[in-house]
Amino acid sequence: MNIGVDIRVLANGEDGGIAQYLLNLLPELFKIDRSIKFKLFFSSFKKIKIHYDWFSEKNVELFKFRIPNHLLFASSRFLNSPLVDKMLGGTDVFFSPHFFLASVSNGCKSVVTFHDLSFVRHPEFFSWRQNFWHNFEMKPRQQAEKADKIIVVSRSTRNDLVSLFGVNPDKIKIIYSGVSGKFFQEPEKNELERVKTKYRLPDKFFLFLGKIEPRKNILGMLKAFSHLYERKLVAEEANFVIAGDLGWLYKDVTKFYAASPYKRLIKFIGKVDEKDKPALYFLSKIFVYTSFFEGFGFPPLEAMVTGKPVIASKTSSLPEITGNSAILVDPYNVSEITQAMANLWLNPTILEKGKEQVKKFSWERTAKATLTALVS
């Protein structure tokens, strides 16, 4: 059997949940059945060096093109060509880990992963360009209708596909993502010191990790952090470390920070290298992730692996993913977030179930279920 896999999302680097989904899933997928040939489809007009150790697997072949993706998207949208499976020399199944437009032959089965429908639920959290790309350039509704099978990473996303797009639930398969093994081993002391020095981290801090964008509710977390001091809810000095790239529509966050009387206690450390993330989690005291909407949400689980107590939102997929192992709050209620931050800061041991919860999320298990969905 030949399976095509669209890896064009990696043209934008390794940041973001979808790229991490792909990078963790594929190595596990390739080693399940060596008789299956995986043909990887990559295209970028820019000269991008892309290499991973698993490219050398005997059942893996990379097909690299220098065709601008916006042209491929437009051609697929209006002309239903080129046929990607033909560009790969023929495939039985074409797997899209994200709803990038790709036309395939009638004899080739199409399987696509939908991570969330946040752009439908909350268009106000995206720029006009992103909304145009999501809703019109990629034609997600039509892709969902046309796909032979759809993989979703949470029950929340499955319900949205059914209620918002009218997708037949029988062709939707819920397959939870996993947690990378690199988070399970506590870093050595010298590694912790290296990361602490590199990012100039304080001794004790709340941590948020994610892109600086409206959907992540960073402004709400900053307001809650300020209330800790205004209401004198913390006796010792607490800091708030915000890790992640600036995304879009972030000026409200930077404006609030600039005017905050507690700005010396707020540290924006920017993008964090993947190899540094385990140490960053271990160095933190409390992880805060009160996002308005998530299709899955890797960071809360990663924090749980390291034994850190987590505050998350009781919306979208987060209750489903964190189970009873996090303090769940209303992301629109700043006072509720504040109280949760105060309670955990004063008594961080009240949550000890996180490591049990993450055992449910294994990339090996994800890969086996994904391969079953692809070949069945």
Summarize the structure in short.
With 376 residues, the chain is of the alpha/beta class. The protein has helices at residues 17-30, 69-79, 84-87, 118-121, 128-137, 140-146, 155-165, 189-198, 218-230, 251-259, 277-283, 298-305, 318-322, 334-346, 354-357, 363-375; strands spanning 2-6, 37-43, 60-65, 93-96, 109-114, 149-152, 172-174, 205-209, 239-243, 266-270, 286-289, 310-313, 327-329.
What does this structure look like?
It is a single chain. Helix 8 packs across helix 11. The chain is globular and about 65 Å long. The chain is an alpha/beta fold. Helices cover 38% and strands 16% of the residues. 41% of the residues are buried.
Topology (elements, then pairings):
Elements: E1 2-6, H1 17-30, E2 37-43, E3 60-65, H2 69-79, H3 84-87, E4 93-96, E5 109-114, H4 118-121, H5 128-137, H6 140-146, E6 149-152, H7 155-165, E7 172-174, H8 189-198, E8 205-209, H9 218-230, E9 239-243, H10 251-259, E10 266-270, H11 277-283, E11 286-289, H12 298-305, E12 310-313, H13 318-322, E13 327-329, H14 334-346, H15 354-357, H16 363-375
Parallel strand pairs: 1-2, 1-4, 2-3, 4-5, 5-6, 6-7, 8-9, 8-11, 9-10, 11-12, 12-13
Helix pairs in contact: 1-16, 8-11, 9-14
